[in-house]
Predict the structure.
Amino acid sequence: MLAFINYNQSIFIKSKFIAMAHNVTLIPGDGIGPEVISAAQKIVNATNVNINWELCEAGKKSFAQGLTTGVPSETIASIKRNTVALKGPLETPIGHGGKSANVTLRKLFDTFGNIRPVKTMPGIKSPFQNHDIDMIIVRENVEDLYTGIEHMQTPDVAQTLKLISSWGCENISHLAFSIAQSQGRKKVTCATKANIMKLSEGMMKRTFESVAELYPDIESEHIIVDNCAHQMVMNPEQFDVIVMTNMNGDILSDLGSGLVGGLGIAPGANYGENAAIFEAVHGSAPSIAGKNIANPTAVILSSVMMLRHLGELDAADAIENALYVTIDKGKFLTEDISPTPICGTTEQFTNQVMNNLGQTHNKWSKRSHSKLKLQSVPIVESAPSYSTEGVDIFFHTSTPPQTLAKTLSNIAQKCGFLLKMIANRGVQIYPDIGGFTSKSPPHHQCRFIYKNGSPTESEIVKLVAHLGAEYSWTHLERLQNSQNTETYSKAQGES
């Protein structure tokens, strides 16, 4: 229970009991990061919650020092020790240099779930300010295209691997239902592109539907992700919790922020079994850094999420109410959310929130926030049940398809294989199926089926060696069969 005491026109929250200290890693970040993190830290401190802040570094300075991960070992050790971090935005080199420091942190601590609340706030102008939007977007955080595994197959064709695992899908599905349980929510929606990517996105759909059976008290549904985007704009109130793979979740969570006022008010959290990292999801905004005009709302709300994670529910509710009251009054708001040309500074806005601690906004409704239970999903390797039918080999050649097919067929026959088809960018161009497919870049997927059961490793190597003597091959994939089911996609037009 918290008691509110007024000192020098500022309201502080004082606990009636001496609480155990929480150790939190604090990463100010880049650009406006130090300003907005400082604002959130001051407000949290004003509640008298007992937090030991451990200041650490990541991002731009670390990259400048030649650290390609952007995350120093001291920061890694701090998060590992404290298991909770609050961080500002981190800059990442674009198109060159090291990988994203944000992604590095997520992967190092296996924070597999990204949580983005999307909620209408009184006083914030937005296209949907008269709607009652209150949803949570749950994004798988470490797989999918964000594994960052890319190759230039030819000088003109790039490949990115979309890796989806059953464990990743199970983890994120359990997290979505656990969030619904912990907040008293009634429905979880899974949004995928399983109509096109039937293996990867289809795995997400199938796993979600299996996990949903373990939560019979919560309604579940599946929706195609593009329709989900459409429905979020047409009728956002229908959603409670939405769970998605990484790329889909990245895009739709920003769409959600746009519905309620933008990234400046969008909080976020990254959850794993052993660590939780809370962050504003906006960028570092270097053009306004150091000018005392940045909006700290997003990172303040992220600190609210952090306090609830720490079990400091009263303090979290108090800050959220104070933020609502401050924004609704419209005084000393930063330029991006001010309803008038008269704007406040970051410092003035922060002080207003602190002054309003202890007040309750009439449109704020208390939601239950019980301890989030993360389901530990063991990685159990499935018993090998695949048999190899053949291989797809990708070639970099401008040889016309009919000529290419004749040469490849002759070589394949001698090695015990049949050339079934040639595809270009997923469309069969040999045998010709009609249409205007003759104009295609010099990057061909050639499918070879073994004529007598499953080829051995040496037989595949022999095929590749003979083909490679004629044409430059760039990539190889096995064609696997499991329980009489093909575990690979067909090209458009392939029989």
